[in-house]
Amino acid sequence: MNPGSVLILPGWQGSGPDHWQSCWERVHGYQRVEQHDWLHPLRGDWIARLEDVLLSRQPGEPAVLVAHSLGCMLVAAWAAHSRNTHRVKGALLVAPPDVERDDLRQMLPGWSPAPSQALPFRTVVFASSNDPFCALGRARQFAAAWGAEFIAAGPRGHLNAESALGDWPQAHEKLLPLMRGGAATSLQDTFPPI
């Protein structure tokens, strides 16, 4: 698979240079989907931007989406409305936020309710046991609703730059089968400590 077929979807405020998503772009050549406004994310605008990027690509090789935080909700919301979900063959979703929580509804208006339909492509969800934006049980509910493999990554905060994951090889290992589009690796509910 062409590295340019892996699309990086940061969350609210984008992903800085020390974020594992930025590391993957530098090391592997994956492509970031730039949003028009990282600070005031409008759900409809973000969905339209992802749709535009996917439609601008050659249809012969579906993309794999790598989302962090609000990017996870973007993937689920896009899949609920797009007629072009066949242009995606897999998704790695990391640290989905609970956009239905009162504090997050105020910070991110328009993102609630969270999409809860099964995603039409193979999906893996990583979540931390002490994520300040989503309880582990709630992340597990999102994964179940989306029909995704769920991986508990241990107490690593929001699985972002502050989590000191570096280029996070453990998660990249879960991305590779999504890129190949092959059979699922053995499902597990926990992941070795990072």
Short description:
This protein has 194 residues and is of the alpha/beta class. It contains 6 helices and 6 strands. Helix content is 33%, strand content 15%.
- The coarse silhouette is globular
User: Sheet bearing the most strands, described?
Assistant: 6 strands, parallel
Q: Could you give the distance between the termini?
A: 27 Å
Helix percent reads 25-40%
Structure class = alpha/beta
CATH superfamily: Alpha/Beta hydrolase fold, catalytic domain
Q: How many structural domains?
A: 1
What share of residues are in beta strands? 5-15%
Q: Write down the Rg.
A: 15 Å
- Unreliable spans are 183-194
Counting DSSP H or I runs of 4 or more residues, the number of helices is 6
H/E series: EHEHEHEHEHEH
Order the strands across the largest sheet as they lie in space. 2-1-3-4-5-6
Query: How many β-strand runs?
Result: 6
What is the CATH top level name?
Alpha Beta
